[in-house]
Write a structure and sequence with these properties.
It is a single chain. Helix content is 43%, strand content 20%. It is α+β, with helices and mostly antiparallel strands. The strands form four sheets. A seven-stranded mixed sheet has the order 1-2-3-4-5-6-7, sandwiched between helices. A hairpin with a 2-residue loop joins strand 6 and strand 7. Helix 7 crosses helix 8 and helix 14 runs antiparallel to helix 15. The longest helix has 24 residues. About 3% of the residues have low confidence.
Length: 406
């Protein structure tokens, strides 16, 4: 990215942060203050608001793609700046401070880490943390909130716009990335190739793609900083950041999705999802079928022993037409709020059907796919994805790499 492009993105993020923070504060009884604006401006603050409990000075921080470690310095400076201003005014003219921070990468754990950092080192300050898809978390007085604004569309897929030739998360690229990450994992989490590919030729053979295509994938991974060539094999680096980028890239995919429910009335307490699993198990045992449906989502996490809650929500990937699956399962398309399951015909078919695991004979999506499928779920999806990372992905990755860093 050029210096001009970087500056333009920072300006866009700064304007987006300022606009949404203003809307947030106005809805809670704050207004831009004409009183003492000059004094606050002399100290370089980005905003001054009058509120129910007095004056609120605001310091903006646009972190862009910065890591948490590099972000801490700027946040610490802002904390000291607000404290110095409050001390100068003294108890006769009390003032509150608010840190407003913009993070460009959707799904990043940086807001969570910054929240913990501020709570530990500056509990007296209020804060407003925002990402580029509009999600925010905030503390104002004693009230903490989560919510969302319309997304900053220009930043939803920055890497795809900057390097359209890379497309690291194209359908077959996802499959090859899973082969590099998940070989050696517990077989309930991964049913694909279990041996480390030692070179591009082996990766192409294990992935069922041409050698030029595998080479193109490795080049894209290297350009993104996630894949490194070794003398024998490849190393995947920065797993947590890779998964965050992956989840953001596939969030608005082109899969054919049908929300569905049983064609028959459902009695209270009836385990419709359990019955559906039993029917999928029978389909899996039918060796005449070239491929069978694969279970994912919150229900798959529960089957794997990684459920964060008792949310009864299931995704079923089907190798053919979703409508045909609904007919065989005695199901119909239903309004999203009434649906018991999402039936999906995936674009990335190889990535779904060639690497699933088995739980009591039922095909369950690989552990990365489960992570991706729950990450943006409104039903505690982030918590569920974080649990998958802590309990399965990070430990398995460390074991496979001899205890090395993720």
């Amino acid at each position: 990215m050029s210096v001009i492009d970087h500056r333009q993105r920072c300006e866009e993020m700064g304007a987006y942060l300022e606009q949404n923070l203003g809307l947030f504060l106005q809805k809670r009884g704050f207004s831009l203050s004409e009183m003492e604006v000059g004094l606050a401006s002399d100290h370089g603050f980005d905003g001054v608001y009058s509120g129910p409990e007095g004056l609120l000075v605001v310091e903006h921080k646009v972190l862009g793609m910065a890591s948490f470690v590099s972000a801490k310095g700027g946040v610490a400076d802002a904390i000291l700046k607000i404290r110095h201003f409050a001390a100068e005014r003294g108890p006769a003219k009390p003032v509150k401070g608010l840190l407003a921070i913009m993070v460009s990468r959707p799904g990043s754990r940086i807001p969570e880490k910054l929240q913990e950092y501020i709570a530990k080192y500056a509990p007296e300050l209020d804060w407003f943390l925002l990402d580029s898809i509009g999600r925010f978390r905030s503390k104002l007085g004693h009230q903490e909130e989560n919510g969302s604004f319309p997304p900053l569309k220009a930043l939803l897929e920055p890497r795809r716009h900057l390097r359209p030739e890379s497309r690291l998360f194209a359908p077959k690229f996802q499959w090859l990335m899973k082969i590099l990450i998940l070989n050696g994992f517990d077989r309930k989490y991964w049913g694909g190739p279990d041996e480390v590919p030692l070179n591009v030729s082996e990766l192409a053979r294990k992935g069922g793609v041409s050698q030029p295509y595998a080479s193109k994938f490795i080049a894209a991974g290297e350009a993104a900083g996630y894949v490194q060539r070794l003398a024998f094999g490849f190393a995947v680096q920065r797993l947590e950041e890779l998964l965050e980028d992956w989840a953001a890239a596939v969030r608005f995919g082109r899969d054919h999705i049908l929300p569905a429910a049983s064609i028959y009335p459902v009695d209270e307490g009836e385990d419709c999802l359990g019955s559906l699993v039993s029917r999928i198990q029978r389909m899996s045992a039918d060796s005449s079928l070239p491929a069978c449906p694969v279970i994912s989502g919150h229900f798959a996490c529960q089957m794997l022993g990684l459920g964060r809650s008792n949310v009864r929500s299931m995704i079923v990937y089907v190798p053919g037409e979703p409508e045909e699956f609904l007919r065989r399962m005695d199901m119909v398309v239903a309004p999203r709020e009434e649906a018991m399951v999402q039936v999906v015909a995936p674009v990335a078919q190889q990535s779904i059907f060639a690497g699933h695991g088995l739980i009591e004979g039922a095909p369950v999506a690989d552990i990365i796919q489960c992570y991706l499928d729950v990450r943006w779920s409104a039903a505690r999806g982030r918590e569920q994805a974080d649990l998958i990372y802590r309990k399965a992905l990070s430990p398995g990755f460390r074991i496979k790499n001899g205890g090395g860093e993720c």
